[in-house]
Design a protein that fits this description.
Elements: H1 20-27, H2 32-55, H3 66-71, E1 85-91, H4 95-111, E2 116-117, E3 125-134, H5 136-146, E4 170-171, H6 185-189, H7 191-212, E5 228-229, E6 235-241, E7 248-253, E8 258-259
Antiparallel strand pairs: 1-3, 1-6, 2-4, 5-8, 6-7
Length: about 260
């Protein structure tokens, strides 16, 4: 992955609101089809930008997760502790989605043996970040203010912008995620290696579209490819460090099942 700013790439201006989803819903006229189009445009545009940067002559290497690199992998620092604490609402995928993720992870691992894979039990999608990259004391203060009342007036300071939604399944934590010495950066810089990696990712995306996209199956999502937020479990209200979360569940929000 090349380094990229977190921004809305859907090509439509989203009003700024205290709840980031409100602005997106307003801009989409509360129309589920328009909402999906916004997310699709953002995903396609972001993928195209990343592909261009990875294939560029001035590509300088894969962007490593600096904290994960110190916690796991060939450059692990046994004394390192992630100083960044967060307070978030997480959506947990149902088992059928976890099964699909495992298939995708294996395909990625076949192409990049040194790639770090997210443990299946830790899979989550960030529904809303109250705040991130704070000290433990700052998070404790927010929690103490939230507990007495759901209307505590806490400022929402998310890293992500809508329309962006992702489920992290892998990360780079070594200079060479491919075959050979994980610390040999020259392998990942090779243009043929970069092309093979992008080809593998694109093949996975095409397989997912052919296998699960409703357009390919009479506008129906095939079994195993749909995630209804709230299915099997509601939202987790979590606090802890951003990497290798030593989190605590502050609340468990039971949601009425709703397709997103």
């Amino acid at each position: 992955m090349a380094k990229v700013a977190i921004e809305d790439l859907s090509g439509v201006s989203t009003p700024s609101t205290s709840n980031p989803y409100d602005g997106l819903i307003q801009a989409s006229d509360n129309d589920p089809k328009k909402l999906q189009e916004r997310y699709q445009l953002h995903r396609v545009a972001r993928n195209a930008r990343q592909k261009a940067e990875i294939l560029a002559d001035n590509f300088s290497g894969w962007v490593l997760d600096e904290h994960l690199t110190k916690l796991e992998g060939p450059q692990r620092d046994a004394d390192y502790r992630d100083p960044r604490h967060c307070l978030v609402l997480w959506a947990r995928p149902p088992q059928k989605v976890k099964n699909l993720v495992q298939v995708i992870q294996q395909k990625l691992k076949d192409a990049a043996p040194n790639l770090w894979l997210m443990p299946i039990a830790n899979l989550h999608m960030t529904a809303l970040e109250v705040t991130h990259s704070k000290t433990e004391a700052e998070i404790d203060d927010l929690v103490s203010r939230l507990k007495p009342s759901a209307n505590a007036g806490v400022h929402v300071g998310s890293r992500y912008v809508v329309p962006s939604a992702h489920l992290t399944i892998a990360r780079f934590n070594s200079l060479n995620p491919f075959d050979g010495d994980p610390l040999d950066a020259s392998v990942g810089l090779d243009i043929q290696t970069r092309r093979r990696w992008l080809n593998e990712v694109e093949m996975i995306n095409k397989w997912l579209e052919a296998e699960f996209w409703p357009e390919q199956h009479d506008n129906k999502i095939r079994p195993g490819g749909e995630w209804t937020v709230g299915e099997e479990k509601g939202l987790d209200f979590r606090r802890g460090t951003l990497c290798k979360l030593s989190e605590f569940t502050e609340a468990y929000a039971q949601l009425r099942q709703r397709n997103l």
